[in-house]
Amino acid sequence: MLDGVDWRQAARDTQMIVLGGDPQIPPGNFPRETVRLGYLSIGEADPRRPYGNEVRAAPFLVEPDPAWPENFRVDLRDRRWQQILIDEEIPRLLRQGFDGLMLDTIDTAPYLEGKDPARFAGSRQALRDFVRQIRTRFPGAPLLANGIAGLADVAPFVDGFVVEGVFATYDFGRRLYRETTAVERDWKLGRIAEAQAIAGRPVFTIDYADVGDVVLAHWAESEATERGFKPYVGVRDLNTLP
Fold this sequence. Notes:
Elements: H1 7-10, E1 16-19, E2 35-41, E3 44-45, H2 52-55, E4 61-65, E5 68-74, H3 79-95, E6 100-104, H4 108-115, H5 123-137, E7 143-146, H6 151-154, E8 160-164, E9 168-171, E10 176-179, H7 182-198, E11 203-208, H8 214-226, E12 230-234
Parallel strand pairs: 1-2, 2-6, 6-7, 7-8, 8-11, 11-12
Antiparallel strand pairs: 3-5, 4-5, 9-10
């Protein structure tokens, strides 16, 4: 549905956009002053990406993500996976015309270490070391980190935080969009505060509301704005204009 959008017109007041690694819409279609970030999943491997053949049946693949079963959670400690991203994926995105990166699935490392501390010991340290390495290798590229449990780990090395489902979320179990509970919100707001205490970065929220649910969408946007966050509200597939 986005193929027919005049992006120079649609993005005229947009300071920043994030696109997938193989966008149907080239970064060059946006105004030059718009910060253009390429999507990079560092904690999950997607076999549909150009590196698909390299990672098929690789030992660093741990388990499928139940919410997105085509993606596999990755042991971020594995140097082979790190090299695929550092030497292949990131240079490919920057060659496409992206200014920087949105680093997604950073929470895989704390999730695996928490799930099996013996087997995945050092995963959080590997996350910190790897994002530091990206920062060092590509010093001019703006970096956002998308996650919640891992935000404090990567805070010193990124330029902003992205947090999903702070006020409105898609409930995969019940298959519906809903307002988050007070417990869910408080936990996420607490993790944001921890990360900002380490590095005072801007916070970009991604909240989820069904098409036409203006009440939920506007409420989530206003709650984010009140706290000084920069909001985006869309559907779970993130393939609509905000």
